[in-house]
Amino acid sequence: MRTNPTSGLVDTQGRTVRDLRISVTDRCNLRCVYCMPAEGMPWLPKDDLLTYEEITRFARVCLDLGVTGIRLTGGEPTVRADLPILVRMLDGLAPGLDLSMTTNGLKLAAMAEPLRAAGLRRVNVSLDTLDPARFHRLARRDRFHEVIAGLEAARRAGFEPIKINAVLMRGFNEDEVVPLARWARERGFQLRFIEWMPLDFQQSWDRARLVPAAEILDAIHAVFPLEPAAAGDPSAPASLYRYRDGSGSVGVIASVTRPFCGHCDRIRLTADGQIRTCLFALREYDFRKAMRGGASDSEIAELLRAAVWRKEPGHLINSPYFRQPARGMSAIGG
Ligand code: SAM
Ligand code: SF4
Fold this sequence. Notes:
Elements: E1 19-23, H1 52-64, E2 69-73, H2 83-91, E3 98-103, H3 108-118, E4 122-126, H4 132-139, H5 144-156, E5 162-167, H6 177-187, E6 190-194, H7 213-223, E7 226-228, E8 239-243, E9 249-253, E10 266-269, E11 274-276, E12 285-286, H8 287-292, H9 297-309, H10 329-332
Parallel strand pairs: 1-2, 1-10, 2-3, 3-4, 4-5, 5-6, 6-9
Antiparallel strand pairs: 7-8, 8-9, 10-11, 11-12
Helix pairs in contact: 1-2, 1-9, 2-3, 3-5
The structure holds S-adenosylmethionine and iron/sulfur cluster.
């Protein structure tokens, strides 16, 4: 069998891993319809979660292997106790580390300041609707105003840019493309629409309810003319478009209709210490067992290099052979 010939995290397709997504918990204080069922989520047992020391150790090995960016996610990362402590531990690993977080924003009103002080550099806040009643139906919790308060707190704490993630579902909120774009433009938020992917826990994904990126861009362009933004980082999942009037940009993450697997530079560490080399991977690599079994840093590094070497060339969503992974987005780390 061919093996990885270099010391970094490269795969058989010639891609290099630079981005580590760390899920710090699978739990959440919302129940978004495109992500989780209303009830009955089987949470991971507490003892299975990596400790902050284990997460930091694993991250250090990754940085030594060439990772330059870490994003905290979940579940909802802010529901894990004492998150600023983890942020401070990770920030201490490397000066200038690109340390970011994806959050639903509910707890940012209280946590934006301490997270920023601990070394968090960037936040993405998820918001799929501007209508509080619709938010209640979509997230199954009546907490719209907490997200808005969280966004304001993030701005006061000095996060810049602030990105907004929005998922659209046909028949639910696809009529909010232009209102969301207008709202984000007026406030200087960088909005990104994410295509709904077959990663919901309840496996109810329905292609007919996916709103394709092309349709989203057409709708915005009709009101606020767009042009492609200058090519940026090729491994970034979002395709960016500038408003022709100079008032910022909007992005689409067209994971289903325009897959970008050929440039993927990401791996994911689940809250229970499994490495996934693709969102849609059907296999995981157990680093919790390795770390708790006494593996040395160099053994961890070797296991990781071997896992990345076998990174999936791409997802199969558009193929008849597609099988949805057993774990949902909230357990994988979005
Ligand atoms: N709870 C945090 C939040 O909602 O931002 C972080 C975790 S969440 C899994 C990360 C991102 O994935 C969110 O922007 C969410 O909207 C998105 N997401 C969740 N399920 C999805 C799905 N099935 N398809 C596409 N995006 C999804
Ligand atoms: Fe929670 Fe984020 Fe999933 Fe919504 S998308 S249920 S906020 S993990």
